[in-house]
């Protein structure tokens, strides 16, 4: 009986490993929102990392996180490092491309609770007196990261965070 249970357990583990291995390495999660504000106003809230505290979906997860800014205040080369509790971990984000009122591309590197990274891209498309803001996070996953996504629904969580951030960005941009 013990051997049968062990064989079933090994078969389940093997099936899980095969399933995870067959998942694509590349991922992309994208959401968008329409903001009742000009592209320039929305852009400035993304292009200046110091303004992220007002709308970032992660800022309130640890109000005591240590945040440091490097480089210029906004645009290419602007960077923000953080070191917080287990909810936010530690890492750095750097603006690698900034096209005024059109796009901001950011490289994000995580150092805790795990090492990894992603690309975070924003685009701003004028629609009359409104702006469509698209936020995409994309990159590649290691086997362990793919397993995490399968078990914990990581891409779904990422999508929820993006939705929350866009909703908060919309509120901030429409207020001022």
Automatic annotation (TrEMBL):
InterPro entries reported in the protein's UniProt record: Polyketide_cyclase/dehydratase, START-like_dom_sf
Listed Pfam families: Polyketide_cyc2
Domain of life, per lineage: Bacteria
CDD domains: SRPBCC_1
Designated name of the protein: Polyketide cyclase
Organism of provenance: Methyloceanibacter methanicus
Taxonomic lineage: Bacteria, Pseudomonadati, Pseudomonadota, Alphaproteobacteria, Hyphomicrobiales
């Amino acid at each position: 009986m013990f051997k049968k249970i062990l064989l079933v357990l090994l078969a389940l583990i093997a099936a899980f490993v095969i399933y995870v291995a067959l998942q694509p390495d590349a991922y992309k999660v994208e959401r968008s929102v329409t903001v009742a504000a000009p592209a320039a106003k929305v852009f400035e809230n993304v292009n200046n990392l110091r303004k992220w505290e007002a709308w970032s979906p992660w800022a309130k997860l640890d109000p005591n996180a240590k945040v440091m800014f490097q480089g210029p205040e906004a645009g290419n080369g602007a960077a923000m490092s953080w070191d917080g509790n287990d909810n936010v971990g530690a890492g750095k984000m750097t603006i690698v491309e900034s096209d005024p009122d059109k796009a901001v591309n950011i490289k994000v590197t995580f150092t805790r609770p795990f090492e990894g990274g992603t690309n975070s891209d924003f685009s701003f498309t004028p629609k009359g007196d409104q702006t469509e803001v698209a936020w995409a996070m994309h990159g590649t996953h290691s086997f362990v990261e793919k397993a995490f996504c399968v078990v914990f629904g990581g891409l779904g969580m990422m999508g929820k965070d993006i939705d929350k951030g866009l909703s908060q960005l919309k509120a901030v941009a429409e207020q001022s």
